[in-house]
């Protein structure tokens, strides 16, 4: 599938490229603004938070904040639109919430895990979804913990291995199903290919499966609706799209999988304005834009009469190679359709614009 | 009049020889002629030579009169050489022109491709610019939105200072607004908004549920036959091992006539193995060997049979047989995977012991070291290996 210019395919246009002097692990748009944040680790072993603003064809550095430990991931998901506090997880297992106007001391801080926090997600903030604002962190120590910024020191939920079980690194976490005040679901992906779905309302494991290869990234298409679709990406270039509307008692959720890139798929991000379009970023420095098509019937009855889901199909809309190093982080702007930022291990952050998304 | 093409004729400069096979006309001219421009025409039984002199001068005669044979020869050779050179030069010139033509063609294609590429680039640029403009517009909208919000905030602060009951009258109170120094209409509407948002915010905060009651969910991780994730596994080898084991179990060497005399259970190699193990434990080594022998005849692919028989032979001091059996066991225990580690360690240790008892200490040490490599934490093996090393050193010193 080659990039045809002038055709009706969405094009990925590289708008700005900014070279950084540190390794960037996560990049996020600041909601309701043309500003973006880069989080990473400097060569001297400290954490860096940089705030940039988009000015025409370049990025202007507004602020640089240095912290004692390298920062792995961050989210705005659990904060209100007025406050816009950033929640970060660092290499030491600390969860901190920062007010970027006064970043000397964190608003909330807890040493949540014994090892690096690999992934963080927030829900209940930004005017999206309902219910209490919560942050979930997944760490290399095999545990997944849910935090409420109003409760100090102890997590409100803790998913940890059974006593005596050898732990597996948790690589990714995501919130979902937050369509009313009580319902919440956390999905966690581990390095041995396990995907587990925890229901926070009943405090139980709702579903688990194993996709053989380590799970690099999971994301629900929307956090604030009845869970609809879940995309899980893994090593060796595979990703799975699960249809989450119908859960079969034994077979779980129906899925379709696609082997797209020869390398690890590091991230998947759904377009905030269209939940059937998502972008995957790969270890070969490439980005693929996909569209999911629903099947004619989303569920059918099996031989015993219980409902089981039917997975649809995925089609590739566009792909580009931007770098020779893996693109480890990707974020769509929630305010401008098609604007996204990606950070790669070649120490550059790129702002991209995906055109013609209205026509899909 | 037929006009000869020059290539049919072979001109030489000085002597002036025309060779039109099969005929030869030779005339040694007085002075050099310009052979490129000269022509020869045949017609009406005549040949017309049109020769151009190299140097315009009057010739004494057409041909050189006093030409002796040697001079002729020399002149001829010279002419031939010169002609050769000319031919070479011509081919060279042809080559060069060919190359130049090629180059030209290449450059032309390159230019075309450049043009194409440029066209695509231009299209992309246009897209980019269009998109950038949209982005700028949007960004400015955002900025205005932010300004709006900051004014809103000011309005909110202002309101917080005022006591609650005065709020209603404030909406009408324009003088206060004027004192702020900002535009009337804007603030007025902002104030309205401001109060609304404060109210709604308060409501929302009350609506937020309390933090969840802390709870823990215990998880189990997916077990596999081998506890490694795909990226760490040596799946191919492990599958092979499993496959081999499964196959081994299915083999039944059933073409022995004595089998008919055996009881049903005695035909089962596993049962026989267990019997052998029990006899070994009780000290009946010969009996154990018999049991293992029968089991092997039934199924010669089970490595554990050979392993255990090796142990028996060690006890019976049938050292060569012990070596044989341990080797056979090791053969069957390929590919080396974590699952058959213990068996391999045992095989190496037994073979090592047999070698040592045969006083083949170096071979024995080799086996012990192999065992140590598989299981570095086993102290007994470590101790025995040390002992053997000392023995070897002792024998070397004494010999």
Question: Mind sketching the topology for me?
Answer:
The complex is a heterodimer of chains A (360) and B (399).
Chain A: E1 12-19, E2 23-29, E3 35-41, E4 47-55, E5 58-67, E6 71-75, E7 86-90, E8 94-98, E9 108-111, E10 117-123, E11 134-139, E12 144-147, E13 157-161, E14 170-176, E15 185-190, E16 194-199, E17 204-210, E18 215-220, E19 229-234, E20 238-248, E21 252-259, E22 265-271, E23 274-282, E24 286-293, E25 299-301, E26 307-309, E27 313-321, E28 327-332, E29 339-344, E30 348-354
Antiparallel strand pairs in A: 1-30, 2-3, 3-4, 4-5, 6-7, 7-8, 8-9, 10-11, 11-12, 12-13, 14-15, 15-16, 16-17, 18-19, 19-20, 20-21, 22-23, 23-24, 24-27, 25-26, 28-29, 29-30
Chain B: E1 2-3, E2 17-20, E3 23-26, E4 33-43, E5 46-53, H1 69-161, H2 167-172, H3 174-180, H4 184-207, E6 215-219, H5 235-250, H6 269-282, H7 285-298, H8 303-315, H9 319-332, H10 341-357, H11 361-374, H12 379-398
GO cellular component, one term (chain B): extracellular region
Domain CS (chain B): 1-63
InterPro entries (chain B): CS_dom (IPR007052), Dynein_assembly_factor_4 (IPR052004), HSP20-like_chaperone (IPR008978), TPR-like_helical_dom_sf (IPR011990), TPR_rpt (IPR019734)
Which features would summarize this protein structure in a list?
heterodimer; A: 360 residues; mainly beta; 4-stranded antiparallel β-sheet; 0% helix; globular; disordered N terminus; B: 399 residues; mainly alpha; 3-stranded antiparallel β-sheet; 12 helices; 6 strands; 9% strand; TPR-like_helical_dom_sf (chain B); coiled coil (chain B); TPR repeat (chain B)
